[in-house]
Amino acid sequence: xxxxxxxxxxxxxxxxxxAAIITCNLMGLxxxxxxxxxxxxxTNVYKLYGKxxxxxxxxxxxxxGLIPVLFAKLYGMDSxxxxxxxxxxxxxxxxxxxxxxxxxxGVATLFGILIALNIYVAGLSLMTWLVMIKLYxxxxxxxxxxxxxxxxxxxxxxxxxxxxxxVFTAFIIWRHQSNIIKIVNVTED
Length: 189
Fold this sequence. Notes:
Number of helices: 10
Oligomer: single chain
Helix content: over 70%
Strand content: under 5%
Radius of gyration: 16 Å
Structural class: mainly alpha
Distance between the termini: 45 Å
Shape: globular
C-alpha cells in the first residue's frame, strides 16, 4: 500500500505540471489562460499560437498520463492500484497543485493513460476522435464522443478498467460543460 500511495502522490504531482503553461512560458508566449477559451490545453494553445507550441503541449500532457501508469504497470501493480494512479494523474491535470488548481480538460492526459492501460482502447478512442473531427471539425465534440465510448471499449478489451472509464467520462463531460452548451447552440468553433 505504501508503494501505491507513493505512486499516487507522484502521479498527481506530475499531472499538476501544465504542459501548456510551461510550453508557452519557455517559448516567450503569454499564458494560454489569458486568451481564447482560457483553457490550458493543446486546442487553445493551437488557436492562440499555432502548431508548434500546441504539439509540445499535446505531447507533454499525454506523457504525464502515460509515464506514471506505465511505470506502475511495469512494476506489476493490480488494476485497482493502476486505476487510482491513473486518476491521480488525471486529477492533477484538471486541478493542478502548481497552478491554483485551474487546469485543462484532461483529454490528452487521458489518452496517455489509455495507452498505458490498454493500447486497443487507446486506438479505438483515437479512431473515434479522428472520425468525429473529420466529420464535424470540433475538437470538443470529438473528445466528448470518444470519452463516451471509451468505457464500452474497456468492456470489450479489459473489464478491469470499465468503472474507472466511467469516472473519466464523467469528468470529461463535467469539464466540457461550456463546450456542450456551445455545441447545442451551434456557437462552438
